[in-house]
Design brief:
The structure is a single chain. The chain has helices at about 45-50, 55-60, 85-100, 110-125, 140-145, 165-175, 175-180; strands at about 35, 75, 110, 155-160, 190-195, 200-205. It is an alpha+beta fold and about 210 residues long. β5 (about 190-195) and β6 (about 200-205) form a beta hairpin. α1 crosses α2 and α3 packs parallel to α6 (about 165-175). The radius of gyration is 18 Å and the shape is globular.
Length: about 210
C-alpha cells in the first residue's frame, strides 16, 4: 500500500490595519529586501513608508497587479533582491541540501512536476483556500495524474505567507510531517511552485 504523506501547514498572518488618518511611520532605507503585503496595502503606501518611488516598486514587481495586491504576497523593495521567480529553484536547492545532510540522494527538480506545483500555488490564491484538496483539481494525487505525471508514491507540502525560500524551508523542517516528506528516501523528484505568497512542494517517487 502506498503511503501518502500530505501534511498541512498553516502559516498565521497577523494584519494590523491602519486608519486613513493614522501617521505613516517613515524609514530612510528599507530595512529588508522583501515586504509581505497586508490588507489595504498599495504600492504608493509602501513607497511612502520606506521613502521609495512607487513607480520603481512597480517596475521591480511586474507580476503584481497594483489594483489587486494579494494579502501575503511578497514584493521586492530593492533591485538587488532576488526575484520571486527564482524562489522555486532556491527551495529545490535547499531541499537537496537538507537531504545531503542525512546522506540522502538529491531530488530532480522536474519541469513537468514544477508546472503542476505552480498551478496548485496559483489555485490556492485565486480560489482563496488553504488545503491539500483543491476545489478545482481534487487531491494532489489526482492533480498529478490529471497532468500526466506517473508515480509510485507521492507527497505534497504547502504553506502561505513566508517571505523567502529559507523562511518557508525553516517552517517545513520544523514540522515533523513536512520534514518527513522532504527527507523521504522513496522520493526521487520534486516540483516547486510559488505564487503571491503561496508555496507548494510536490514530490514523487518512481
Amino acid at each position: 500500500m502506498i503511503k501518502r504523506l500530505i501534511p498541512l501547514l498553516l502559516a498565521i498572518i497577523l494584519a494590523f490595519p491602519i486608519g486613513a488618518s493614522a501617521e505613516i511611520k517613515m524609514f530612510k532605507e528599507p530595512p529588508f529586501d522583501f515586504y509581505k503585503v497586508s490588507k489595504g496595502d498599495s504600492f504608493w503606501f509602501i513607497a511612502q513608508r520606506y521613502g521609495l518611488d512607487y513607480r520603481k516598486l512597480m517596475e521591480l514587481n511586474p507580476s503584481v497587479v497594483p489594483t489587486n495586491m494579494q494579502v501575503g504576497s511578497v514584493i521586492r523593495l530593492r533591485a538587488t533582491a532576488d526575484s520571486p521567480s527564482s524562489f522555486e529553484e532556491q527551495v529545490a536547492q535547499l531541499v537537496n541540501q537538507e537531504r545531503a545532510k542525512q546522506g540522502l540522494g538529491s531530488l530532480l527538480h522536474r519541469a513537468d512536476i514544477k508546472n503542476v506545483a505552480e498551478k496548485k500555488a496559483m489555485d490556492l490564491i485565486n480560489s482563496n483556500y488553504f488545503s491539500h484538496t483543491s476545489p478545482n483539481y481534487g487531491s494532489p494525487f489526482d492533480m498529478l495524474k490529471t497532468f500526466g505525471i506517473t508515480y509510485r508514491t507521492a507527497g505534497e507540502n504547502i504553506a502561505k505567507g513566508q517571505k523567502t525560500p529559507q523562511e518557508v524551508m525553516n517552517a517545513w523542517m520544523n514540522s515533523s510531517g513536512h520534514r518527513a516528506n522532504i527527507l523521504n528516501a522513496n522520493f526521487d523528484s520534486i516540483g516547486v511552485g510559488y505564487y503571491n505568497g503561496a508555496w507548494v512542494q510536490m514530490f514523487t517517487g518512481s
